[in-house]
Specification:
Blueprint lengths: L20 E2 L21 E4 L10 E4 L35 E3 L2 E3 L25 H5 L2 H4 L7 H6 L6 H11 L8 H13 L3 H4 L1 H35 L8 H10 L1 H36 L7 H21 L2 H27 L4 H5 L7 H8 L9 H8 L19 H30 L22 H4 L22 H5 L3 H32 L20 H17 L5 H26 L13 H18 L1 H21 L8 H18 L12 E3 L8 H11 L5 E8 L2 H21 L5 E7 L2 H11 L9 E5 L9 H16 L3 E6 L7 H28 L7 H34 L2 H6 L10 E6 L7 H10 L7 E8 L5 H14 L6 E5 L8 H11 L11 H10 L6 H6 L1 H17 L5 E5 L10 H12 L5 E5 L11
Parallel strand pairs: 6-7, 6-9, 7-8, 9-10, 11-12, 11-14, 12-13, 14-15
Antiparallel strand pairs: 1-4, 2-3, 4-5, 10-15
Helix pairs in contact: 5-11, 5-15, 5-18, 7-14, 7-15, 7-20, 7-21, 8-9, 8-18, 8-20, 9-10, 9-18, 9-19, 9-20, 9-22, 10-18, 10-19, 11-15, 11-18, 13-15, 18-19, 20-21, 20-22, 20-23, 21-22, 26-27, 27-37, 28-29, 36-37
Protein name: Solute carrier family 12 member 1 isoform X2
Family: Belongs to the SLC12A transporter family.
GO cellular component, one term: apical plasma membrane
Length: 1099
C-alpha cells in the first residue's frame, strides 16, 4: 500500500502547525497537488519519519499562498475533506488522521473536548477513548461515508437543544453585554445611591473629615476585598447566570449556595421596594412644597411607588437591552448631577447661601470640620452603619453574569473599576462639602457678626456670620441639620433632584433585574424542588418572567406596607452575609489547594479574603446586632434543610476538595501511629460480589464494622479483560451509590483478573490505605461445592490459604438459605420492565380513546386498533402472571427473608461462642462487638470450650477469669469434655457418603493403575490421606453433633475455624469438614484469627 502526499500541501505559513488533516490511504490513488515553488529559502523544514527519498510526508514552513487550503479549516479546527479526499481506505474501512505528520487517531488539544454538555458557547465533542487508541484501529473504529466530521471530532450529531441554541446565538438572538455596559455601569449606579445626595454631608458633619474619610475607606476596604474575591472566583472557570449564588454554590457547595441564594434573591426583591419608596418620598416632598398632594403623605408614597414599580417592571420585561439603555441614561443624569455639585463649589456664593453655611472653599472651615462632632448619641460605629449601605451594590454586574459576553474578564474589570470610581466620588463629595459648609447655620442673612464679637475660633464668625444661637436652639441649615446641602451647593439645584431620582430608580431597576436572575439560577439547580416552577425562561434571552412577577409581588407588598425602617437593616445584613460567604469561598478554595483552583485573576490573597469574611461578619453586628442574629438564624435553617435534603448535584466544590485534603492528612497522620492491641478493630474485605446480590453477608459484616472498622465490599471480574474492565468501570459508581443509599458504611472495590483466586490475591495485598488496611477476610460458605468443578473448589480453598499466607484473619459465614439473590433480582427487574410495558400500553389505549368515535370509518379502525392492543395487553398480563407464578415456585420467598435476617433487631436470645482454639482472640472479639450493636444488644454470650472431665470446674474458673480480665460479659460457660469421642454411626456414614464421589480408592487398585489415577485426578481424596486425618474428620463430625445438641436454638453461632495444612489436606476433604461442621444449624460464623493478640487486659 502506498501513500503519496505532496510536500506542497504543507507550504502555507499561516496554517496551524498542529493541523489535523485527513489522509487518504489506498492502492494507486494519487492526490498529489501542484503548487508554485517559492524562490525564497525555507525558514523551517521538517521531514517525516518515513524516508525522504520516497517523498512521503514533508512539512515545510515558508511564505506562500493559502489557495491549497481551501478544503481545510485553520486554527486547529477539524479538517473537512472535499469530494476528492476519502477518509477511509478501501480495505479496512477505518479512519486515519494525520497529526504531527503521523497517522494516528490521537487528536490535538481542542477546547470543544472540555465543554459541558449543553453548552451554548459551543458544542461539546468527545475525543477518541483510550480503548479506541489502544486497541487495533480496524477492529474498533468504522467510519460511515458522510460522517467525516463526526468521526474526526469523536462526536455524533449534537442534541437538538444544543444545536438550536448554537444557531440562535449565531443569528444574534442573544443579547450579551461587555464589561462597561454590563458591569461598570450597573455597579456604579447601584453603589451610588440616594445616600450620596442626602446623607453624605450629614455623615461628614458628624464624623469630621478625618474620621469620615476613614469610614468611607473602611467600607471600601470591605467591598474591595469582596471584589477581589469575586474576581478570583469569577475567573476560575466559565461563569453562568446566577451571580453571587452561582459563585458561592459552585465554590462552597449547594448547602451554602442554596441558603444564601434564597435570602440574597429575597433581599434584592425587598431592595426594589426600598429604592422605589426612596424615590416616592422625594416626589412627595416636591408635591408638598407645591401644595399638590393627592391624598396624604403615606398614601401618596404608595400610589407613586406602585406606578413606578409597574413602569420599571415593564422596562425589565421588555428585555435586557431596553433595561441596559435605561441604565445608561440614568448614569448620564447621575454623572451630570455630581459634576454639577463640584461646579457649584467654585461658583461664588450668595448672601443667602452664606446664611445657610456655604462659603466656598475655606481653610478655616476645613480645619474646623476635620475633627469629629458627634451629637444626639451618635458615634463612629453608628455613623458607619448608616453609611455602609451606600457602598454596597458591587455584585450588580455579577448578578447578570449569564448575560455578559465574557464574564471572566468583565466582572473583575468592571467591579474593581466601579469601586475605585465611586470611592473617589464619595471622598471628593465628602471633603468638598466639609471644606465649604459649616456644621450649623441659621439661614438668616441678618445674623452677621457685630464688631467686637469674640469668635472663639469659629470659622463662620471669622467669615462675618454669627451662628452662635445654634448652640442653644436647633438650626435648620449646615452639614448637621440640612439633608439638602448638595442641592444648595450645586450650580443648578434641580439637577441634584434629578440625580436623586436617577440614583433611586437605577438601583431599583438593577435590583429588579438581579433578583429574578439569581432566583432563576437557584430554581434551575432544583435545590428547592417546590420552587422549580420559577426556573422556566422565556424569549431569546431566557428571561425569567415568572421571577419578575414574583419579585414585583414581593416589592409591591413592601411598598404598600411602607414601613421599611425595620426591614432595611436585615436587607443590608443579607447583602453582607453574601459578601462574607464570597470572601470565605475564595479563602476556602485556596486553602483546599485543589488543582482545579486556578483563577486567572492573581491579585488576591487567601488570608486577606478570610479577613474580609470576618470583617463582613463584624460589620453585620455593627450595623444591627439583632438583624445579624436573624440573618444567621435564617441562613442556618436553610443550610440544615438543604443538607438534610441532599440535592443530587456535584459541582466540584472546595468543600469536596477540603474533605479530600483532611482525609489525606488524617490518613498520613495515622501512618505515624504504631498499632496497639487496645486499638485493634476488625477491618474487613467482604467478598460480596455486587453488594446488592449478597446483602445478608454485607449486613452481618456491617454489624461488627459499623462505626468500628473498615469494610470493603469486593468483586472479582473474570474473563476477557476488555469486557471485564468495561463492566467493572460502568458499575463502580452505581454499586457505591447503592451502599450509600442503603446506609452501609462500606466501600466498594473491584478487580479484573484471570481467575477468582488471582483477583482475591490482588485485593488482599493492595486494598486499603496506610493503617486503614484490611486485617480480616469475610466470605460466604460455598454451598454448591459438591456440584462445582475441581478448579472452582481449588480456587475457593486457595483463597482461604492465601488469607492465612498474608496473615489475615478469616471469617466464613453460612446460613441455611445461602446468600446469592442475584437471580431473584433479575426476575424482579424483568417483572418491573413488563409492568412498565403494561402501563405504556394503557397510556396508548387512553390516547386512542379520544379518536375512537370520530369520522365514522376512522373510528371503526381506531376501535379495531384498540381491541388489538387490548388483546396484546391481555397477553402481556398473562405473561406476567405466568412468570410470577413460575418464579415464585422457583425462587422460594424464604431466600429473601433469610437475606434480611441480619437487618432486623434480634430479641432476647443467645450468641453461642465455641472458642475451641486460641487464635489471638478474634473468635471472642467478634461476638462481643455484635452485642454492643443495637440489633444484637439483647443477646447474651454463651461460651463453649474444650476441657478435661476431671478438671471441669478449674477450666470454667480459668475461662471466667480470662473473660473478666478482658471485660467481656457472658451469661454462661460450658466446658465440653467429649469432643474427641467418636461420632455416632449415622453421622459418620453421612460423612463417608458425602466424600465418596471425591475419593480415589487407590488401595483397591494395582500400583500402576493407582499412579495413573493420581495423575488424572490429583485433587481427589486418597485413602492414605483419609486415614491420616481420620481423627480430625471424627472431630468435625462430632462437633456438629455437639452443636446440634447445645446450640440448635441460638440466634447465632461463632465457632473456631479448623485449619487445613497447605499441600497436605486436599481441597475436597477440607470442604467436607466445613460442610459437616456447619450443616443444619442456625447462622454460623467460622472464625480464625491470625494468631496475633487482638485482646489485652493491660490498661
Amino acid at each position: 500500500m502506498s501513500m503519496n502526499n505532496s510536500p506542497s500541501v504543507f507550504l502555507d505559513p499561516n496554517a496551524n502547525r498542529f493541523q489535523v488533516n485527513v489522509i487518504n490511504e489506498s492502492h494507486g490513488h494519487d492526490n498529489s497537488a501542484t503548487s508554485q515553488e517559492d524562490t525564497d529559502p525555507p525558514h523551517y523544514e521538517e521531514t517525516s519519519f518515513a524516508d525522504e527519498a520516497h517523498n512521503r510526508l514533508r512539512i515545510s514552513f515558508r511564505p506562500g499562498t493559502r489557495q491549497l487550503y481551501d478544503n481545510f479549516l485553520q486554527n486547529g479546527d477539524t479538517a473537512k475533506p472535499d469530494a476528492n479526499i476519502h477518509p477511509y481506505d478501501t480495505h479496512s474501512n477505518t479512519y486515519y488522521l494525520q497529526t504531527f505528520g503521523h497517522n494516528t487517531m490521537d487528536p490535538i488539544p481542542k477546547i470543544d473536548y472540555y465543554r459541558n454538555t449543553g453548552s451554548i458557547s459551543g458544542v461539546k465533542i468527545s475525543r477518541p477513548s483510550l480503548l479506541e487508541i489502544h486497541e487495533q484501529l480496524a477492529k474498533n473504529i468504522a467510519v460511515n461515508p458522510g460522517s467525516i466530521d463526526r468521526v474526526a471530532n469523536g462526536e455524533g450529531t449534537p442534541g437538538d437543544d444544543v444545536t438550536a441554541n448554537k444557531e440562535e446565538e449565531n443569528k444574534g438572538g442573544f443579547v450579551k453585554f461587555g464589561w462597561v455596559k454590563g458591569v461598570l455601569v450597573r455597579c456604579m449606579l447601584n453603589i451610588w445611591g440616594v445616600m450620596l445626595f442626602i446623607r453624605l454631608s450629614w455623615i461628614i458633619g458628624q464624623a469630621g473629615i478625618g474620621l469620615g474619610v476613614i469610614i468611607i475607606l473602611l467600607a471600601t476596604m470591605v467591598t474591595s476585598i469582596t471584589g477581589l474575591s469575586t474576581s478570583a472566583i469569577a475567573t476560575n472557570g466559565f461563569v453562568r447566570g446566577g451571580g453571587a449564588y452561582y459563585l458561592i454554590s459552585r465554590s462552597l457547595g449547594p448547602e451554602f449556595g442554596g441558603s444564601i441564594g434564597l435570602i440574597f434573591a429575597f433581599a434584592n426583591a425587598v431592595a426594589v421596594a426600598m429604592y422605589v419608596v426612596g424615590f416616592a418620598e422625594t416626589v412627595v416632598e416636591l408635591l408638598k412644597s407645591s401644595n399638590a398632594m393627592m391624598v396624604d403623605e403615606s398614601n401618596d408614597i404608595r400610589i407613586i411607588g406602585s406606578i413606578t414599580i409597574v413602569i420599571l417592571l415593564g422596562i425589565s420585561v421588555a428585555g435586557m437591552e431596553w433595561e441596559a439603555k435605561a441604565q445608561v441614561i440614568l448614569l448620564i443624569i447621575l454623572l451630570v448631577a455630581i459634576i454639577n455639585f463640584f461646579i457649584g463649589t467654585v461658583i461664588p456664593t450668595s448672601n443667602e447661601k452664606r446664611a445657610r453655611g456655604f462659603f466656598n472653599y475655606q481653610a478655616s472651615i476645613f480645619a474646623e470640620n476635620f475633627g469629629p462632632g458627634f451629637r444626639d448619641g451618635e458615634g463612629f460605629f453608628s455613623v458607619f452603619a448608616i453609611f455602609f449601605p451606600a457602598a454596597t451594590g458591587i455584585l450588580a454586574g455579577a448578578n447578570i453574569s449569564g448575560d455578559l459576553e465574557d464574564p471572566q474578564s468583565a466582572i473583575p474589570k468592571g467591579t474593581m473599576l466601579a469601586i475605585l470610581i465611586t470611592t473617589i466620588a464619595y471622598l471628593g463629595v465628602a471633603i468638598c462639602a466639609a471644606a465649604c459648609v459649616v456644621r450649623d447655620a441659621t439661614g438668616n442673612v441678618n445674623d452677621t457678626v457685630v464688631s467686637g464679637t469674640n469668635c472663639n475660633g469659629s470659622s463662620a464668625c471669622a467669615l462675618g456670620y454669627d451662628f452662635s444661637s445654634c448652640k442653644s436652639q436647633p438650626c435648620a441649615y449646615g452639614l448637621m441639620n440640612d439633608f439638602q446641602v448638595m442641592s444648595m451647593v450645586s450650580g443648578f439645584g434641580p439637577l441634584i433632584t434629578a440625580g436623586i431620582f436617577s440614583a433611586t430608580l437605577s438601583s431599583a431597576l438593577a435590583s429588579l433585574v438581579s433578583a429574578p436572575k439569581v432566583f432563576q439560577a437557584l430554581c434551575k439547580d432544583n435545590i428547592y424542588k417546590a420552587l422549580h416552577f420559577f426556573a422556566k425562561g422565556y424569549g431569546k434571552n431566557n428571561e425569567p418572567i415568572r421571577g419578575y412577577i414574583l419579585t414585583f409581588v414581593i416589592a409591591m407588598a413592601f411598598i404598600l406596607i411602607a414601613e421599611l425602617n425595620t426591614i432595611a437593616p436585615i436587607i443590608s445584613n443579607f447583602f453582607l452575609a453574601s459578601y462574607a460567604l464570597i470572601n470565605f469561598s475564595c479563602f476556602h478554595a485556596s486553602y483546599a489547594k485543589s488543582p482545579g483552583w486556578r483563577p486567572a485573576f492573581r491579585y488576591y490573597n487567601m488570608w486577606v479574603s478570610l479577613f474580609g469574611a470576618a470583617l463582613c461578619c463584624g460589620v453585620m453586628f455593627v450595623i444591627n446586632w439583632w438583624a445579624a442574629l436573624i440573618t444567621y438564624a435564617i441562613e442556618l435553617f436553610l443550610y440544615i434543610y438543604v443538607t438534610y435534603k441532599k440535592p443530587e448535584v456535584n459541582w466540584g466544590s472546595s468543600a469536596q476538595a477540603l474533605y479530600y485534603v483532611n482525609a489525606l492528612e488524617s490518613a498520613l497522620a495515622l501512618t505515624t501511629v504504631e498499632d496497639h492491641v487496645k486499638n485493634f478493630r476488625p477491618q474487613c474485605i467482604v467478598l460480596t460480589g455486587a453488594p446488592m446480590t449478597r446483602p445478608a453477608l454485607l449486613d452481618i459484616t456491617h454489624s461488627f464494622t459499623k462505626s468500628n472498622g473498615l469494610c470493603i465490599c469486593c468483586e472479582v471480574y473474570t474473563g476477557p479483560r476488555k469486557l471485564c474492565v468495561q463492566e467493572m468501570n460502568s458499575g463502580m459508581a452505581k454499586k457505591q451509590a447503592w451502599l450509600t443509599k442503603n446506609k452501609r458504611k462500606a466501600f466498594y472495590a473491584a478487580v479484573a483478573a484471570d481467575s477468582f483466586r488471582d483477583g482475591v490475591k490482588s485485593l488482599l495485598q493492595a486494598s486499603g490505605l496506610g493503617r486503614m488496611k484490611p486485617n480480616t477476610l469475610v466470605l460466604g460458605f460455598k454451598k454448591d461445592w459438591r456440584n462445582a468443578s475441581a478448579m472452582q473448589v481449588e480456587n475457593y480453598v486457595g483463597v482461604i490459604h492465601d488469607a492465612f499466607d498474608f496473615e489475615l484473619g478469616l471469617i466464613i459465614v453460612r446460613t441455611s438459605q445461602g446468600f446469592d439473590i442475584s437471580q431473584v433480582l433479575q426476575v424482579q427487574e424483568e417483572l418491573e420492565k413488563l409492568e412498565q410495558e403494561r402501563l405504556a400500553l394503557e397510556t396508548t389505549i387512553k390516547d386512542n380513546d379520544f379518536e375512537e368515535g370520530r369520522y365514522g370509518i376512522r373510528g371503526f379502525f381506531n376501535k379495531a386498533s384498540k381491541l388489538s392492543i387490548a388483546k396484546h395487553e391481555t397477553r402481556k398480563d398473562s405473561n406476567i402472571n405466568t412468570i410470577q407464578s413460575i418464579h415464585m415456585d422457583e425462587f422460594n420467598q424464604r431466600l429473601l427473608e433469610a437475606n434480611s435476617q441480619f437487618k432486623k433487631k434480634h430479641g432476647k436470645g443467645t450468641i453461642d461462642v465455641w472458642w475451641l482454639f486460641d487464635d489471638g482472640g478474634l473468635t471472642i472479639l467478634i461476638p462481643y462487638i455484635l452485642t454492643t450493636q443495637k440489633k444484637w444488644k439483647d443477646c447474651k454470650l454463651r461460651i463453649f470450650t474444650g476441657g478435661k472431665v476431671n478438671r471441669i470446674e478449674d477450666e470454667k474458673l480459668g475461662m471466667a477469669s480470662l473473660l473478666s480480665k478482658f471485660r467481656i460479659k457472658f451469661a454462661d460457660i460450658n466446658i465440653i469434655c467429649d469432643i474427641n469421642m467418636k461420632p455416632n454411626k449415622e453421622s459418620w456414614k453421612f460423612f463417608e457418603e458425602m466424600i465418596e464421589p471425591y475419593r480415589l480408592h487407590e488401595s483397591c487398585k494395582d500400583l500402576t493403575t493407582a499412579e495413573k489415577l493420581k495423575r488424572e485426578a490429583p485433587w481427589k481424596i486418597t485413602d492414605a490421606e483419609l486415614e491420616a486425618f481420620k481423627e480430625k474428620s471424627y472431630r468435625q463430625v462430632r462437633l456438629n453433633e455437639l452443636l446440634q445438641e447445645h446450640s440448635r436454638g441460638a440466634n447465632l453461632i461463632v465457632l473456631s475455624l479448623p485449619v487445613a495444612r497447605k499441600g497436605v489436606v486436599s481441597d475436597h476433604l477440607y470442604m467436607a469438614w466445613l460442610e459437616i461442621l456447619s450443616k443444619n444449624l442456625p447462622p454460623i460464623l467460622l472464625v480464625r484469627g491470625n494468631h496475633k493478640n487482638v485482646l489485652t487486659f493491660y490498661s
